[in-house]
Amino acid sequence: MIDVEPEPVARPDEPEHCAEQALPSRATVWAVVLAAVVVALWFPAADAAVWAVSPAAHRFTSSDSLVEMLPPVGGAAILAVWVFVFWSLIGSFLNVVVYRLPLGESVVHGGSHCPRCDTPIKWHDNLPVVGWLFLNGRCRSCQLPIAARYPVVEAICAGFGTALYFRELLSGGANLPQRAPDFLHGGVLMLFPNPSSDLLGLSLYHCGMLCILLVWGLIAWDRHPLPGRHVVAVLLVAILLPSLFPSLHPLPLSLDASESRTADDWLVNGLAVSVAGGLAGLCCGQFLHLLLNRLLRGDAAGRCGLPLLPTSSMGVGLALVGIVFGWQGMLGTVILLLVACLVQILIWSAVMAWPSMPLELLLVPATFIHLCVWRQLVTSLAPWWPGSPTLACLAPPAVLLLLVSLALPAIAPAVGQSQPPIDADPNHRGDQPA
Ligand SMILES: [Zn+2]
Question: Residue 58 Cα, ligand 1 centroid: separation in angstroms?
Answer without folding.
Answer: 54
